[in-house]
Write a structure and sequence with these properties.
transmembrane helix; 2 domains; membrane; transmembrane; Lipocalin; about 220 residues; 11 strands; alpha+beta
């Protein structure tokens, strides 16, 4: 007997039944549809920092930083007709007064008060900006219960939105560093200075702008150009 020859019964069992073929095809179509729905759901997910904003600022942020998936533009009624805060911010400013809460890496949230010439801040009409701290901008603070001098150098770039008398950064990139000097001692090791993502209220003047936020945070900007 040859082991290469197949029995007629075995050969007949290997042929696929037509109904089985149809069921397999239908199962493949259903699986593809479910997988496609899952892919679309996750492709539309958006975890931008702008998601923390609400109201008109959130609508502005969605226009400034659209999701990768195509989506219809917001209707004109959903956006402010005159973003006055953005218009009055456009230009170059010098920070004259500043009191702000800053989340310092490895330390925690610290209240800082400007004690030297302030940084130069540029707001572009395109929704981008720059904070230039120069070689040394000084702030007074209390760190771990001790008086401290915080010195900041470098720049921070950011993107922002403005609406209804408010403005906030939606994205920011820090190329600035800071050092802490405690009780008049030696400066510590430089670390990255965090970019501000504060949601500010804007009060516009001819050549001066006042920004205010929760916890009595405030900045007064004087126009340079």
């Amino acid at each position: 007997m040859s082991y290469d020859s197949r029995s007629p019964a075995l050969a007949g069992s290997e042929r696929a039944h037509p109904v089985a073929v149809v069921l397999v095809a239908i199962a493949g179509v259903v699986a593809a549809g479910v997988f496609g729905a899952v892919v679309v759901r996750f492709a539309g997910a958006d975890s931008r920092a702008a998601d923390r904003l609400t109201g008109p600022l959130q609508a502005q942020a969605a226009v400034a930083s659209p999701s990768p998936s195509p989506s219809p533009s917001p209707s004109p009624s959903s956006l402010p007709s005159s973003p006055a805060a953005g218009e009055c911010l456009a230009g170059v400013w010098r920070v004259a007064e500043q009191r702000e809460l800053v989340a310092l890496p490895g330390i925690g949230t610290v209240e800082v008060t400007l004690t030297s010439d302030g940084p130069e801040v540029t707001y572009q009409p395109t929704g981008t900006g720059l904070v230039d701290y120069g070689a040394a901008t000084a702030y007074a603070a209390t760190v771990d219960g001790r008086d401290a001098l915080i010195t900041v150098a470098g720049t921070v770039t950011f993107e922002f939105v403005s609406a209804d008398g408010r403005t906030a950064a939606t994205q920011a990139r820090s190329a600035a560093t800071f050092t802490i000097t405690r009780d008049g001692g030696e400066p510590g090791v430089p670390a990255e200075w965090p970019a501000s993502m504060t949601d500010w209220s804007v009060e516009c003047g001819a050549d001066e702008v006042t920004l205010s936020a929760a916890d009595a945070q405030t900045e007064r900007l004087v126009r340079v150009e």
